[in-house]
Amino acid sequence: MMGGRGGQSAALYPNVNPSDIANSFRNILGQYQQVEQNQKVSNDTSSKLDIMFDRLNNNQFTAMTLTNLNALSQNINDGNQQGS
Predict the structure, then answer these.
(1) Considering the chain, what is the average pLDDT of its residues?
(2) 68 CA to centre of own chain
């Protein structure tokens, strides 16, 4: 059993294609990067919502803006319920 584990692996698994393994790990990396990007977007959105909540709590919006925000939130909720 000379050659160590690397030599044994090649002998035991002759159908393993190194490029398939590389492509698989590239795919995993791509999925990981997408998750990371989604997390960044989520954090940005959360920060912006915190600003909006502060402004709502401190009555810093005009009546027109409050009307529009209310309509927007109702439309989003209605759309989410239809999609369920």
Answers:
(1) 86
(2) 28
